[in-house]
Structure formats: C-alpha cells, structure tokens
TrEMBL record:
CDD domains: GYF. It comes from the Eukaryota. PANTHER family: OS05G0320100 PROTEIN (PTHR32133:SF134), OS07G0120400 PROTEIN (PTHR32133). InterPro entries: AT5G49610-like_b-prop, F-box-like_dom_sf, F-box_dom, GYF, GYF-like_dom_sf. It comes from Setaria viridis (Green bristlegrass). This is GYF domain-containing protein. SUPFAM superfamilies: F-box domain, GYF domain. Residues 399-453 form the GYF domain. PROSITE patterns: GYF.
Length: 457
C-alpha cells in the first residue's frame, strides 16, 4: 500500500488570484476611494504592479466613471500660497493632500479665477487684460491646455468644461469642450453671448448672443456673485440673482433665460442653488431659515409655472444650532453624490441629500465661491506642480482669512493677521487665544502667538 505523496510533490491547484484577468476584475470593483488601490498594492508585488499599470487605471476610471468620488473643492478666495486654493473633503486615509492641488499658475495664481470643475478637469480664466486666456487643467496628471478667449469676449462670468467621451471612455484621454458666457451692452441694453471651444479643432465656434430683459441690478449684483453651473443632459444652467436662470444648450447652440420657482422670488442669491434631482432633472434649492430646511423644486414644463414642488429636507438634525440672526448660504452642489454645500456661522458643511449625513469641511464664509472636484486619485500617477512655498504680491498679514472663538463661544472672522496683532497688542485677547484659517476648521486652530511666527503667514 503506497504511502502519502510527499508534500513537495503534490500538484497545487492554481488560485484565481494567480491569473491577472480575474484579479484585474476583482481589483476593478474596489470602491473608488483614494485609499483602495494603495491598500491593495500592499498585498504583494504582483498586485502592486497591476494596480499601478496604465491600462488597469484607465479601466478602473471607466468602470467607476459615473461615481467618481468627491476629493474636495477649489475656491476663489485668496488665502495665501497657490496650495491654499483647494480644501479636501475626506478624512484620512482618503484625504488627498492639498499640496498636490497646487495652482498651475504659480505665483500669479491670484490673477486666475475658477469657472468650473467637471469630469476630472478644472476650468480657469485669467485676469482682465490684452492677453486673457482660459486654462483647462487636469490636477491628477498636471496636464494643462491654455487658449486665448474669443476676441470679442466681454465680461466673462460663467463657464463650463465638458467631456465628449460619454460613459464608455476615460475622460482623461478624451477631447473636451469649453463654454464661455459673457455680457455685453450698456446700462439699459444688455445682451448675453456665448462661444464653445473644441480641443479637437483648437478653435472657438461663432458667437451666439441673445438680447435680455434683465434689470440692471441683476447684472450689477452678478458681477460679484458666481456659482458653478449644473449640467442636465446637453444643457448647462447657471443661477443668476433675482431667481433668474441662464440656459445654454450645447447641441442647439442656443441661449435662453428662464425664471425660477414663484416662491423663490425675492430670495437672497446666496440662499439658493441649482441642483439635480434623483432622476437627473433640473432642480432649484432654497434655504428656509425659519424652518431650518431646504425646499427643492424640479423643472416641470407641463406645469404653467414651469416648476413643481419636489421635496423638503429638514436640516436641524444635520447642522449645529444657528443664532436667530444667521444668514446661511448654499454654496455648491456635487452632482455625482447628490450632496449640497451649506454654510452657516459654525462653518461649511457637506450634506448628502439622500442619507442626510453631514460633515464639516472648513470654516468658510457666506460668499465662498467653491467648485467641487471629483476624480480618481492614484499617488503614483498624480501630477506634481512647481514648488512655490509662499505667495507674492499682497502681504500675507493683510489677507482676511483668520477666525477665532471668544470666551462666550461666539465665532468671529475673517480678519487679517495685522488686525489680530494690533488687537492683541492693545490687550483685547488672552494669551491662549487660538485662531484658524478660512480653509480650516476650529479643530485645527493654533495659538495666535504661534500663527504670528509661522512662515508665509
């Protein structure tokens, strides 16, 4: 009777994980969080090589394209250096370092304004001047493309960057389009104009324009009020003051103005925002201060008013208690996760409208111009920006970006460091006063005396 076969000679059954094809399928289905692939790469060298291969990363982005994670947001507030224009939206280990999103414009970053973030790309416009340009930037790879604005472009206030690949391809390697909208005319007679840039032809389309009946106060208010647009099908919508909405149809190449819900008439601009409903229809959100809730309307062409009530979302369980004189703001909307950015005196909060989960992102301010950015971060593929440790131009001490809490628990700010230094010299502050920046939370506060000694502060 033969004895047992020696262990060293037994034929081992191969594991499915020894084959790159099923392993690739398994890894592709990992959650698209920034930490997923790095953690999988720790298993062994073969997993690490597969997770870092360009082909796998392309497949991973295509597979999760409809659910790209929110990494954070860019903003148009000057808080110092070029790495201070991005605020991360996730906790470790999924928190992406802000330094990786250092502005591609270097020391001139203050002369550039964000207009849109979409499909992993960012759209910026340069300052007013003879060589105004728009810049399309991929923060994940560092790739950028710059082109002059149309020769007749006036006061550009809205813009959008759109991918042409659909859901079956990777946006990162696909052509894109840029939409710019500007206003031309006099105090009593205004026209709105738009043009589309194609990365394939490297050219702008002819200018489309339409006469408007907007009151002069709308345009004056809108000069200092910008919010990102919302993409619904083939059309982009931007919210204007006095509950007016600008629509640009990218297929028909047409511009039109529509009115918001009747109940939104007279509501403050910063307490309203355009959103998407669960079935990707155009929605209109308005903060109701007395009820601590958000009213949501949806576009309804079958309704004589053009809108119908969609739902009401109570926020009293999602937000800290607000003082009676509070003036909350709706500052942004993330289309992929159906989440809205709400600012109150306590800080800027991200609220997921389905689960009603909320988290504080930073202190923020009531007119914070923010542009949510979602994408697929992989540390080995992320682009790097040129080092520029300090911002030059305005002295850092003069930037109004510091907040503090008084002994009664009330929050104050933003103030400049020069102002805080003067108040401290006059004996208004205790020695243990702690301060934090607009792009930070109270939990990140440092002693005022330490902040005054920090480089680039």
């Amino acid at each position: 009777m033969a004895g047992p076969e020696p262990i060293g000679h037994r034929p081992w059954l191969s594991s499915p994980l020894d084959d790159d094809d099923p392993l690739s399928e398994i890894l592709r289905r990992l959650p698209p969080r920034p930490s997923s692939l790095p953690q999988a790469s720790l298993v062994c060298k073969r997993w690490r090589d597969l997770a870092a291969s360009p082909q796998f990363l392309r497949d991973f982005r295509v597979f999760h394209r409809a659910a790209a994670p929110l990494l954070g947001f860019f903003h148009n507030t000057n808080l110092g250096g070029p790495d201070r224009r991005f605020v991360a939206a996730a906790d470790p280990p999924d928190r992406v370092p802000a330094a990786l999103f250092r502005m591609p414009c270097g020391r001139n970053h203050k002369e550039w304004k964000f207009l849109d973030c979409r499909h992993g790309r960012v759209l910026l416009i340069g300052s007013v001047g003879p060589r105004r340009e728009v810049l399309v930037w991929d923060p994940m790879t560092g790739a950028r493309r710059c082109t002059p604005v149309p020769p007749d472009a006036g006061d550009v206030r809205q813009g959008a960057v759109l991918c042409s690949c659909g859901l079956a391809r990777d946006c990162r390697s696909s052509p894109f389009r840029v939409v710019l909208v500007w206003w031309i005319g006099t105090t009593q007679h205004w026209r709105v104009a738009a043009a589309i840039y194609s990365s394939e032809s490297d050219a702008w389309s002819h200018v489309i324009s339409v006469e408007t009946q907007l009151a002069p106060t709308v345009l004056v208010t809108q000069r200092n009020a910008r919010k990102p647009g919302v993409l619904v099908g083939d059309a982009v919508y931007w919210l204007l003051p006095e509950s007016r909405i600008l629509e640009f149809d990218t297929v028909r190449r047409s511009l039109s103005l529509i009115s918001g819900p009747v109940h939104s008439a007279g509501s403050p601009y910063w307490q309203s925002h355009l959103v998407l409903t669960e079935v990707k229809e155009l929605g209109y959100a308005m903060f109701m201060v007395t009820e601590v809730s958000i009213k949501l309307w949806k576009r309804d062409t079958g309704n004589a008013a053009g809108w119908s009530m969609h739902r009401s979302v109570r926020l009293d369980k999602c937000l800290p208690r607000m003082p009676m004189q509070a003036k909350p703001s709706l500052l942004g909307f993330h289309e992929e996760s159906n989440a809205i950015f709400v600012w109150i005196n306590a800080g800027l909060f991200l609220i997921q409208l389905e689960s009603m989960q909320s988290r504080m992102l930073c202190q923020g301010v009531g007119d914070f111009e923010i542009y949510p950015f979602s994408g697929f971060y992989h540390r080995d593929a992320a682009g790097t920006q040129a080092d520029d440790a300090c911002s030059h131009g305005l002295p850092i001490a003069t930037l109004t970006m510091w907040h503090y809490e008084d002994p009664e628990g009330d929050l104050h700010g933003p103030f400049s460091m020069a102002m805080l230094h003067r108040w401290r010299s006059n004996g208004f502050f205790p020695e243990d006063l702690r301060v934090w920046r607009t792009d930070e939370t109270k939990e990140q506060a440092v002693l005022l005396t330490d902040a005054m000694r920090m480089p680039c502060y």
